[in-house]
Design a protein that fits this description.
The chain is mainly alpha-helical. It has one domain: MFS general substrate transporter like domains (Growth Hormone, Chain: A, Up-down Bundle), CATH 1.20.1250.20. It contains 19 helices and no strands. α5 runs antiparallel to α9, α8 packs antiparallel against α9 and α14 runs antiparallel to α15.
Length: about 400
């Protein structure tokens, strides 16, 4: 096994275990709504708190990788995520405690996801590096899927607290995976610039900025969909959002989300062949059009609805690696950390608002109606469909 392959596999494995708690709240949303007496908007706030924690931390933690060894940022952030998941298990009982502990878990993800990508791209370059980025980004979708399945298997049998305990334990496994497969690196050339100066320089990179702005709209759609998928399956199967112990629904949801991995990798390969801009100008509007039908599929036979959700997952995910690879490869080596920080900052700004917007729409139009879900999913998709307008036209 080559060193590049070993490193890539190690970083993908570390991302998987670090994401064990990623989808737990969304997967057990009906159960937690009943246990914590939450409205749909309050549930959206708690799910959004995880992403706000990410958003609040990522400019500092990711940009810091241009000045400090990313391995130690990764270590501290992994421990923060572990504490956040343990806090939810031990203290979670409503919107305040849930929001605080999920915020901390989001901070932990901020210091592991993109810093992990920085660790990878510092050590693998060229076409191999591009493909490593694609597989790493696609592993995020697999992590979300496995987290959903884990939540159903453990939470419905042993209680929701057990799932957060399991997520905390699995997160600890990322530390030896990263430290055993990476060597320390010296500080970067931009260490004399302040954080905001480095972010400003990254913003001035027009090509990278366009990919990052489009990524923000993509994440609005992706996270809105992920956050409410299991709740939608529960409503479609039972007619309401009452708590459900049907592990089959979380398993089906996890399998649907797992399609994001091949979709992201294959989407990146297509983009390499036909051009990133051409691919994004096709796939992002296509996903927006498909989103219009999701809510109405609640009345379809279950198998037909799952097929539509699977296709939608493919279109939602097929642009993810392409957008990130475009931004990273548009940055000079000394500014990659700041560019990744800006990229993920814009991305998770969209991601933190998507679940909240969907929850508000469901409260307004009815979470037990096809109309409510149609409006919610359409709002997710249509916003993302405007992503290509930010991409710079080739000269």
């Amino acid at each position: 096994m080559t060193s590049a392959l070993r490193l890539g596999l190690a970083m993908c494995a570390a991302l998987l275990v670090n994401m064990a708690g990623f989808s737990v709240f969304a997967a057990l949303l009906p159960t937690l709504q009943a246990a914590w007496h939450l409205t749909n908007t309050e549930a959206g706030i708690i799910e959004g708190a995880f992403l706000v924690g990410y958003l609040a931390s990522v400019p500092f933690l990711v940009a810091m990788t241009d000045r400090r060894d990313a391995r130690y940022i990764y270590l501290i952030s992994t421990l923060a995520a572990v504490i956040g998941n343990l806090g939810t298990a031990l203290l979670g009982d409503g919107i305040v405690s849930g929001s605080i502990t999920r915020f901390l878990a989001g901070m932990g993800l901020a210091g592991t996801f993109m810093p992990g990508l920085k660790l990878l791209t510092e050590r693998v370059s060229g076409i191999a590096g591009n493909r490593a980025i694609a597989f790493y980004m696609a592993t995020f979708s697999l992590g979300a899927s496995l987290s959903t399945i884990l939540a159903g298997m453990i939470g419905h049998r042993f209680g929701w607290q057990a799932t957060f305990h399991a997520a905390a334990f699995l997160g600890l496994l990322a530390i030896p995976l990263v430290f055993a497969n990476t060597e320390p690196r010296p500080a970067g050339a931009m260490q004399h610039h302040s954080l905001w100066r480095r972010l400003w320089l990254a913003w001035r990179n027009e090509n990278a900025r366009g990919y990052s702005l489009a990524y923000g709209l993509h994440m609005w759609e992706l996270y809105g969909f992920r956050s409410w998928l299991i709740a939608f399956l529960v409503m479609a199967s039972t007619g309401s959002l009452a708590a459900s112990a049907d592990t089959g629904l979380t398993n089906w949801g996890g399998l649907v989300l797992a399609l994001g991995l091949p979709a992201s990798v294959i989407g990146n390969e297509i983009a390499l062949r036909i051009g990133r801009r051409r691919w994004l100008c096709f796939i992002m509007p296509a996903s927006a059009l498909l989103s219009l039908a999701i809510g109405w599929s609640a009345a379809w036979p279950f198998a037909a609805m799952l097929c539509l959700l699977a296709l939608y997952t493919v279109t939602v995910s097929a642009d993810s690696a392409t957008l990130t690879a475009g931004a990273v490869e548009s940055a000079p080596p000394e500014a990659k950390g700041a560019t990744m920080a800006l990229h993920t900052l814009l991305g998770f700004a969209g991601a933190s608002l998507g679940p909240l917007a969907a929850g508000g729409i469901l409260d307004l139009f009815g979470a037990d109606t096809r109309l409510g879900w149609t409006v919610a999913f359409s709002a997710m998709g249509i916003v993302a469909g405007f992503g290509p307008i930010f991409l710079r036209r080739p000269s």
